[in-house]
Amino acid sequence: MERYLEFAGVGKAFPGVQALDDISFRAQSGRVLALLGENGAGKSTLLKIMSGDLRADTGSVILNGETVSFTSPFDAIKAGISVIYQERQLIPAMNVMENIFLGDLPVKSGLIDAKKLKSDTKALLEKFGLSIDPEIPVMFLSTAHQQMVEIIKAYRRNSQVVAFDEPTAPLTDTEIEILFKLIGQLRDEGKIIIYVSHRMAEIFQVTDEIVILKDGKFVKTLNTSETDEQELVRSMVGRDIGDTYSHLSRNDSMGDVLLEVKNLASPYVRDVSFTLRRGEIIGFAGLVGSGRTEVMRALFGADPVLSGEIKLDGRSVSFKTPKDAIDSGIALCPEDRKEQGLVLWRSIEDNICMPVLSKLRKGLFLDTKACERVALSSIKRYDIKTPTVDKIVMELSGGNQQKVILGRWTSELMDTKILILDEPTKGIDVGTKAEIYQTVCDFAKLGIGVIFISSELTEVINVADRIIVMHEGHITGSVTREEATEESILALAMAQ
Question: Which of 457, 438, 436 is CA-nearest to residue 201?
Fold first, then answer.
């Protein structure tokens, strides 16, 4: 019997925002359905309603002909629905096997059967080709391995509906291949699969049909084999954005050397040397774990520098803390914007004004009008979708959260000399990506030196003026944008 999941007239509103408006479509068993749309289109809200994180205001969710309504994610899991979100739903202090079997731990004589728990976890890890210690706390795993633990946890439940929300963002190519094989297996087993991703190549590789949402409304359903990227972009964005990179207005007048790094070593990288000029965009490429992020953490004062020299404006500097780096004009937009970049439970205004609070005082107190003015300026500059500066950042889409971070470091009171962007378009839709690429070029035109890290080779090759490639903690080569190809970058990224 064919199984299905149906959304019938689903609506959901938040203060000042109609997140979903009369959404209706059906996902069938044995097929992979892509849910596609710009940031803020309503994809995550729909998944949260399906999984019991939120309640719909109107409409219903129907599973195999029966209307279902969940008061918690646990209810949804019991009904056979699992969602793997961008934000990992793991308990950091618990180990891998406890997280995978949480809620269904094997018991023997009234106690947890640790031997069976470990052996069952090992079997699952081996099935996925992962060499992870079942007894290690997940807080000590890489972001990619934490994501794989999330996927294994959902697979272990044998759910009849499995939804993936940007699952490949932190994964290596090998792990992505494992994931796609798993999705194919689940499809062949007759599962109902919903797949959310902004990576077009993935959509065409792994899905059978595509549902497009825009501004909280259903647009259309397309068969993946009968459409192309241009049609998807037009349907999502409402316009043809053309060749994103060829339309960039770039900086063509770089200045003198702004940053010089010589033989930098930290606990995670070694012998790293490069220069950055005013108005230049340097790209950092490499496989996951190559050391790109670790170099930036050392520059930013977040990791200790063991040896080497950092020169800013020609003078040697030593940053013991990120505050030292910020005071010197260095800003970092980290890879994990939710855990390291934002205070999620505070407002847009609070997040944007955070590094310049000392400049916003009026006597002993903050000048609230000045704070609001600074925040509104960034909201307007980056077109952050929000009804008010007081909106809690946690309630924004991923793209708008990224814009809040950019707004923080480039506000009118900041004197940013170097802007480090670590995976700035991760989980971002194509329309917002185009905006961010141009924003990066605009930073360079202002004389800001930009360091741009990305795991998407096409992106880093087309945005950066020069690309530095890393492998296992050190630099293996450097090429200009004109010289760079995906093949040449990969060769350097895999160099021994």
Answer: 457
Q: How many residues does the chain have?
A: 496
Alpha carbon 205 to its chain's center: 20
Phi, psi of 82, deg, nearest 5: -125, 140
Strand ranges for 89-223 from DSSP E: 107-108, 111-112, 161-165, 192-196, 209-214, 217-223
Q: Where are the beta strands (DSSP E) in 37-114?
A: 58-63, 66-68, 81-84, 107-108, 111-112
Structure tokens belonging to residue 310: 């950092």
Q: Residue 430: which of 156, 264, 237 has the closest Cα?
A: 237
* Residue 14, beta-bridge partner list: 17
Residue 366: its H or E element = strand 365-366
How far is residue 299's CA from residue 324's CA, in Å, rounded to a whole number?
11
Question: Which CA distances in Å does 203 have to 33, 155, 219, 430, 443?
Answer: 9, 21, 17, 13, 32
For the chain, the distance separating the N- and C-terminal CA atoms, rounded to the nearest angstrom, is 53
Residue with tokens 């925002």: 17
Tokens for 337, please give them. Answer: 């914007």
Both tokens of 350, joined, read: 């609070």
| Cβ atoms 431, 240 nearer than 8 A | no
Instruction: Spell out the domains of the chain, with CATH numbers in brackets.
Output: 4-237 (3.40.50.300), 257-493 (3.40.50.300)
Nearest to 82 by CA among 145, 158, 196: 158
Task: Answer for the pair 258, 449: CB distance below 8 angstroms, yes or no.
Answer: yes
Structure tokens at 35: 């849910």
For strands 107-108 and 111-112, give the pairing: antiparallel
Strand order in the sheet with 474-480: 330-333, 418-422, 449-453, 281-285, 466-471, 474-480
Could you list the mean pLDDT of each consecutive 10-residue stretch along the chain, which spans 496 residues?
89 85 94 87 90 93 92 90 81 92 86 91 87 90 81 86 84 79 87 89 92 91 91 76 76 92 95 96 88 93 95 94 92 84 92 89 87 92 87 85 87 88 81 84 93 89 94 92 88 76
